[in-house]
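Per reviewer request, we include the raw input and output of the structure prediction for the construct analysed in the revised manuscript.
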Amino acid sequence: MPFDWDTFTYDEAWLRQAVQAEVALACDLQVGGNPATARSIAWPQLQPQLDQIKILSLLFDELRALLRQANLGAGAEAALIKGRLLIQRQLSQLSSEQRAYFDALMLEETSASQDRPLRSQLPTVLCQMLSPADWQEIAQAAMASIQAQILQQVSLQTSVARSASEALNSGFASD
């Protein structure tokens, strides 16, 4: 069950699996740096973290869909990584209106109803949550990735052509 922030999409099921693994090993979740003062965390105390994970997962999925629609090709992965970092930053500094939306979204996600009006607003909320400067950073990350790949390919082709030319020239020189 490896954890990687660059590809973070773990949800409540992942956290439940982690807790079950600790239970199977007879371990407790611990907080604090000093084991002598560590204390167990009750399941209800984990709910804010579970909600945070679920919100991140939903936002990351929306970002991925948005970038797929933008057809960024070779720059998509760099844009996704930058976007995830910016979303995490923005999520830590939500306005009271945004916080209320995400709280209501979490209630909607746990309801039995198939109607999800707040969920359908998530793409718009994501677009508004990130500033124009944030979107510019995402675009620049994609452009930088594409530029690096093009330059690498050109360098490789130039190197291959140079090697072939040198081999051809050395063949003529020996004749």
